[in-house]
Specification:
Length: 56
């Protein structure tokens, strides 16, 4: 993954530049960018809700 890539915050859906993200959290080897403390708090309360799903 490019260090300056734009990703989507899984909580609010906002596009976030990885370098400007509030925080990048790694879960099971997948990186999740979060745009603000509120999204971080929501993600940490229930990360399973926001984890990427494997497609069948």
């Amino acid at each position: 993954m490019k260090a300056n890539s734009t990703l989507r915050d899984p909580v609010c859906g906002r596009k976030v530049n990885r370098n400007k993200a509030h925080i990048v959290i790694t879960v099971n080897g997948e990186e999740y960018v979060l745009c603000c403390p509120k999204c971080q708090s929501e993600f940490e309360k229930n990360p399973e809700r926001y984890l990427r799903r494997e497609r069948p």
